[in-house]
Amino acid sequence: MEYQNIIFEVKEGIGHLIINRPEVRNALNRAARLEMADVLAKVQGDPSIKVLVVSGAGDKAFVAGSDVKELAKYSPLDMENFMDTLAQGFYSQFERLDRPVIAMIDGLCLGGGLEFALACDLRFASDRSLMGLPEIRLGIMPGGGGTQRLPRLVGVAKTKELIFTGEFIKADEALRLGIVNQVYSADELEDQVMAVAKKIAAKSSLALKWAKKAINASQETGLRAGLDYEAMVECLLFTSEDRQEGIKALFEKREPNFQGK
To answer: Catalytic residue among 9, 12, 80, 135, which?
Structure first.
């Protein structure tokens, strides 16, 4: 597939997906989502890609939501299909991807853009970023997972405040609430994010895959079931070649060379 709305690069085991629609503040239309889904399939099929970083082109926005002009043309049936395949289902693909996904947020991160970021594993923002779920201003509500993922980070009461008012918050407030992992200056952001990505890429892809699955499962299961799942996965990893390499490297006082096996 030839990409018109995104850029995808791979370097040193790190995939970098850039939403390239700066003229509309990287708002996501149907075409962009389909191209992004194609990238996910490529990442899934390429074991050399250890981590995926997502960002927006330019210095104005990560993703300023869905393409409202496109959505305005949708019928109720179109909207139902959109929710299933290009909103909730689409963002969940990033959450379910068996590699860590990092959102690099610089500028506006609103509506579907914030819902997209919430489906990523880690979120880092520039100090000039603004975040929010302003759908209530249009007479609708967040429909891409915002009502479900945000309260798991900030609690029910704060989620209701943000959604009911539609107000934006600055990056430092997002950090205080636990929405983002860290805030950097705009000049530092990419270097800092890529440094984290490189640290992750050096780890066992097999261990990363199962650690992500176990942590995600904690959001959907009770404690007892979650502990049982964790124990099962840990026993599985103890039989892996990567575990043997990790122990050997520790004793030999060198960096491990993991193969994802």
So the answer is: 135
Q: What is the pLDDT at residue 82? A: 65
Whole-number average pLDDT of the chain:
94
Q: What dotted CATH number matches 205-251? A: 1.10.12
Nearest to 234 by CA among 258, 210, 216: 210
| Domain assignments of the chain as residue spans, ordered by start | 6-201, 205-251
Active-site residue 2, yes or no? Answer: no
**Looking at 23, 95, 115, 234, which residue is catalytic?**
115
pLDDT digits (tens, 9 = 90+) for 26-58: 999 999 999 999 999 999 999 999 999 999 999
The secondary element (H helix, E strand) that includes residue 223 is: helix 223-237
pLDDT digit string (tens) for 215-258? 999 998 899 999 999 999 999 998 998 899 898 888 988 999 99
Q: 184 with 104: CB under 8 angstroms? A: no
Q: Which residues pair with residue 101 across a beta bridge?
A: 52
220 catalytic, yes or no?
no
Compute the Cα dihedral for 69, 93, 133, 188 and give only its sign.
negative
CATH H superfamily, domain 6-201: 2-enoyl-CoA Hydratase; Chain A, domain 1 (3.90.226.10)
Q: Tokens 């994802």 belong to which residue?
A: 260
